[in-house]
Amino acid sequence: MNQKAYDATKHHGFLLVGRPLLIDGWSRPVGFLLRVVLATALVNLAPAVAQAKNAVASPALQKEFDGFIEKFRAALKANDSAAVAGMTRLPFMNDNAIRDAAQFGAKTYRTSFTARNRACIQRGKAVYDRDDYKNDSYFVFCGELIFVFTKTPAGFLFTDISVND
Predict the structure, then answer these.
(1) For the stretch 114-139, what's the b/e string if a residue is b when 16 or more beta carbons lie within 10 angstroms of its beta carbon?
(2) Is 124 helix (H, G, I), strand (E, B) or coil?
C-alpha cells in the first residue's frame, strides 16, 4: 500500500484508491453529492416558503366582510345577544345543545362575550386566511380566544371560538 492511500485510510477510516483528496479534504464525488443534496433540499423548501406568505382577500370579499363585521360590532356594542346569534351559524360549532338564539345567548354569549372580549372584537384587527378547502375566514385574536368568521353560502357568519395557543 502506498503512503498516500495509507494516510487517507488512517485519517478517514476507509481506503481511497487512486482518488487524491482535495485541499478541503473531500473527494470530488463526495463534494458533488453534497451539492446535489443541498440543491434538492432548497428546491423542496421553496413551496413551504411560498405558502408562508400571508393570504390576501379579494377586494370584493374584503368589502363583504367589512359590511358584516360592522353590523356584528354594532350588535356587540349594544350587547344584543339575539342580533349576534342572528349572525352566527347555528347549531354553533355543530353542538346541538346550541341550536337556536336562546341557547346561544345562554350558553355561549354570556360566557364568551364578556365586556373585555366585546371590546377586543370591536377594536381588534381581523386577519384573513383561506384554508386547504378554500374556505375564506377572518380571525380576531382576543387574549386566549380566537373568534372565527367564515364565508358561507348565506354570507359571512360567526362560526367558531378557538383557543389561541
Answers:
(1) eeebbebbeebebebeeeeeeebbbb
(2) coil
